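User: Can you help me understand a structure? I only have the sequence.
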Amino acid sequence: MITFLICLALLITAYFTYGKFLERIIGVKDNTEVPSKVSYDGVDYIPLPRWKIFLIQLLNIAGLGPIFGAILGAAYGPVAFLWITLGGIFMGAMHDFLSGYMSLKNNGCSLHQLANLYLGKNTKLMMSLFTGLLMIMVGAVFMSQPAVLINNLIHFENPFFTKVAIDNSAGIYTNGLLIILACIFVYYIVATILPIDKIIGNLYPVFGILLLIMALGMLYALFFEGYGAKIPELTTLQNMNASNLPIFPMLFTTIACGALSGFHATQSPLMARCISNEKQARGIFYGAMISESIIALVWAAIGMAFWGSVQGLNGAIAQYNGSAALLVTTIANSTLGKTLAALVTLGIIACAITSGDTAFRSARLIFSDLLKISQTKSMNRIMVALPVFILSLIIILLLPFQTMWSYFAWLNQTLAVFTLWTITAWLHYNNRLMNVSAIPAVFMTFVCSSYIFISPLMFGMQNRNLALIFGAVLTLIIMILFIYKIRMDNKSKNLSLRAGMTIALKNARDAYVMK
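Assistant: Let's start by predicting it. Here is the structure, written out as tokens:
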């Protein structure tokens, strides 16, 4: 319990300390000339109240990651607390804050547009396709799992609803589950196409209440149901994962949204287009990520405590075939009773659905930017969104959940790598302290590069030392390419400066001659 409380205190303190430090570094000002006013369009660029923007941002980013990922990551032991806390403070919250503010200062540009500005056209194209694929994967995961949770919550008894409609390698789908999936699908279409204030702005306060109930319910279980005393302390960095997967890099991708998530950088521009003053940025972006890290910390703790130990959690994961949805449902029903457990489950569903709808909205904006299709007309929005939804349904019906989740996790953290390097280039361009993002960028590049060679879903190398060497070499190559890009930009900047000075001197000389 002591480790948990210390980590909780560090996360809360960081908002007022490190968050304020970052605010000074990037030079946040009391400026109201922001995208929501300069580029108002009534659809995506629209001012919203500060509390609503924070709530939407939190719900956008707090999907299943800080819940499912935290529980699965807790199987590695109390070392998960360390990654959630330090990762959340120095990587995740910094990543969200600076990427959001970077978008704010560039008229609400999306992530791939920012990459084009600071890393070049080639990076933009690669990042756009990469981000679009991630958004589709996020939408697929956050469409299928809420459907499973709702299906478990309802407990259909009518034979029609329990009849198996689809049974393949992706799983078993009953008629009831397909109907629920169809309802979520319809909601996603409406939320993706309509202006942001029509659906998201009005429904999110309700979802926010459910999220609050979920968090308070789990805290109640920890402090008043005796589970707090069962939380293991961080006395060793020993790997306790029963699958014998190494802590590095697997833990750092398993727990993504609770510590660091590239997906968040795709959501931040949506809220950067709704902010009314630059001073709101720290509370909305840094604050929302710290809140999400706290949610992840709570679920990691209850995951280890509920089954009595980390070994017990590993046994439960094996028993439920890695289904985090069943783990969550079991915890809620056993600790809180049916009524409160149902509300907690609804809070989890709200997290997933609200991240899913904004993922599809982001995908629409990304592909519309690439295809140069205006989004002011409803028909244009439908034309861009429809293929995205169809592809996500194909993924749901063909891929098992664990496969979807694993690829989603790696794509998510790799996108964070792109974002961190973009932030570093932006800081360099504005003569700001680069180390706050450069160090996390190098670390996460090594994580994602090593994952390629170690993960069983990719190369799956048995010689892990050699795999780490390959990961380090790939990281070094990326660092060299980044340094080369920065130096070329410096030369271009110097040449432009010299050209400007030459023109200014010539104009001054001509003016003097005319006199």
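Now, to help you interpret it: Residues 2-220+249-304+313-421 form a domain with the Amino acid/polyamine transporter I fold (CATH 1.20.1740.10). Residues 495-506, 511-515 have pLDDT under 50 and may be disordered. Let me know which part you'd like to focus on.
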